[in-house]
Write a structure and sequence with these properties.
Layout lengths: L5 E5 L3 H13 L3 E5 L2 H6 L6 E7 L7 H10 L6 E5 L4 H9 L4 E4 L4 H14 L7
Parallel strand pairs: 1-2, 1-3, 3-4, 4-5
Length: 129
């Protein structure tokens, strides 16, 4: 029996992290949250991350920079970007770089669930969720 996929949320807004965690847990997934990209990169769960939900705009390392670092290190983690400041140019850049989805905050629960499922399917991590 395989373990539940681990969904990681990286957002500098603690309230957004908590709300997104609560929502993703209702989908039946395990969740870890981090308030900075660097905290996530230093954690012991990078290798076990099945799907990453990252804020685009964060102090220090942005979500886009985090995605580039993961790719450069050879990690193929599906990434869903969320942002309170939607910008078509940034959206196109993120999707060209391989992001699964680009959602505006607050994001619709069904849209987020669909994006997570899509990301997990791309990694063959999803079962019957």
């Amino acid at each position: 029996m395989s373990a539940s996929p681990l969904i990681v949320i990286v957002d500098d807004d603690v309230m957004v992290c908590e709300a997104t965690q609560d929502l993703v847990e209702t989908f039946g997934f395990g969740v870890r949250t981090f308030t900075s990209a660097n905290d996530f990169l230093k954690s012991d769960c990078v290798q076990g991350t099945s799907c990453l939900i990252a804020d685009v705009h964060m102090p220090g390392t942005s979500g886009l920079q985090l995605h580039r670092k993961l790719i450069a290190s050879g990690l193929r983690i599906p990434v869903i970007f969320i942002t309170a400041f939607p910008d078509e140019r940034v959206r196109e850049q993120a999707l060209r770089a391989g992001a699964v989805c680009f959602l505006s905050k607050p994001c619709d629960a069904n849209d987020l669930h669909g994006c997570i499922r899509s990301g997990l399917r791309s990694m063959d991590c999803v079962g019957s969720r």
